Amino acid sequence: MPKVLMIINPNSGKANSKNRILQAQNVFSAHGYDLSVYFTQKQMDGYRYVTEHGEDYDIVCCVGGDGTINEVTNACMSLKKKPQIGYFPSGTMNDFGTNFSLTNNYEDVAERICQNNPRSFDLGLLEDRYFNYVAGFGAFTAVSYKTKRESKETLGTLAYLIEGINSLPSIHNIHTSVRIGRKKEELEALFGLVFNGNRVAGMEVFNKKQALNDGKMNVLLVEAVPNIFEAGNYLALLSQTDNKYLHWYRGSDIEFSFQEDIMWTLDGEEYKGTDRARITVIKDALEMLC
């Protein structure tokens, strides 16, 4: 009988998820799974609980947003015996879950978990912290963790747009040096992203889905335009067209250096500031049941 631990963040997403969670638990019971549940009480509580108890389970499921699943995967990476992962996304954007075609139909997600079709996926490692799908710095990257939870629940994506507009006065260019494998570049960046898959901040950035376990991640550096009249070039991100201000790469070993300490966000959560950052890709780090 498979043993399942369900980590639930009660503060993530909409308040109407109670019935969906019960439906998922009913599916596990119908399949004869031995289910335990833990509700997180504060930030990093999910990390602590999985670190202490994760090896007692075959599957660790997460009900929460990108930040909660980040805690769970970081905890699983610290374990000698790594459980398989199940994910019931409840966040506003659901970028990571969408890369696995996971929806808010928890009954369907639970059925897929019980079918036991594992899919390995890569993780990024920035210094001492893993991330599932995106690490970012510069303009707008702080929007995800600065946007108030109450606004997310009420306004959804619009809440992020409002917070992004509020952050405009604080935007400044970042002198960035980057090494990707043997390739080096230096530029004035508006922001930078290192991400896995084809979806970031609710946007599909590639028409064709990319493998999540090929040992490489996408790198996007958005160069600052010299004047406001060229700002329209940033719309190329939405239209998925080539543009001289959008610098695209792929790699497994990526190193950044800045002239000052620059704050990062990992999977939408605030991370420490640093003037140098090395990102390595951990191939086939964990298995997702989806």
Descriptive overview:
The chain has 290 residues and is α+β, with helices and mostly antiparallel strands. It folds into two domains: 3-116, Probable inorganic polyphosphate/atp-NAD kinase, domain 1 (Rossmann fold), CATH 3.40.50; 129-283, Tumour Suppressor Smad4 (Sandwich), CATH 2.60.200. It is 25% helix and 39% strand. The strands form three sheets. Strands 5, 6, 7, 8, 9, 12, 13, 14 and 15 form a nine-stranded antiparallel sheet that branches. It has a four-stranded parallel sheet with strand order 2-1-3-4, sandwiched between helices. It has a two-stranded antiparallel sheet with strand order 10-11. A hairpin with a 2-residue loop joins strand 5 and strand 6. Helix 2 (45-53) runs parallel beside helix 3 (66-77). The longest helix is centred in the N-terminal third of the chain and has 13 residues, at 18-30. The protein is elongated, with a radius of gyration of 19 Å. The two termini are 19 Å apart. The model is unreliable at 143-148 and 150-165 (pLDDT under 50).
